[in-house]
Here is the input.
Amino acid sequence: MSHSVSIMDAEAIDRALRRIAHEILEHNPDPNHFALVGIPLRGVELAERLGKHIGQIEGHAPQLGSVDVSMHRDDLRIRKSFAGVHETRLPLHPEDQTLILVDDVLFTGRTCRAAMDAISSFGRPARIQLAVLLDRGHRELPIRPDYVGKNLPTSRQELIKVRLENVDDGPDLVLLEKP
Here is the structure.
């Protein structure tokens, strides 16, 4: 029997996103030179929220985009379900931009690798950075986030569930499900 522990509520999620927005601006001071690119589903919502925070801080928001990773995953044969294909929207000239990938949870790094593969189909951005709400460790690839809302060491058996009110039912919440 498993049980869930609340890790972050709506206020903690918003506070983490505001801090990430400030950190992004420390390394990328001009929102005209970078784009926030969410990985569907929750990464897109988080990118939009980051864009709003950056817009409040700087007076104008960066471009927003999304990158579908479904056809670039290396685990298609072993996945129990297929989440479906989503639209990819990237800046017109990615080679002139820093693309900041945004996702909810960083685990093995394979989704991030798939996102970078998908982006390379459209061009070569000036740089790619990674922003995640939670980093739970257990990397299988040499991928490290540039911006992290919360580091949360977990066991491989534990699950992280991120719920965002604009994507899921109910309020913003991060749960740790223990076996």
Notes: The first strand starts at residue 3 and ends at 9.
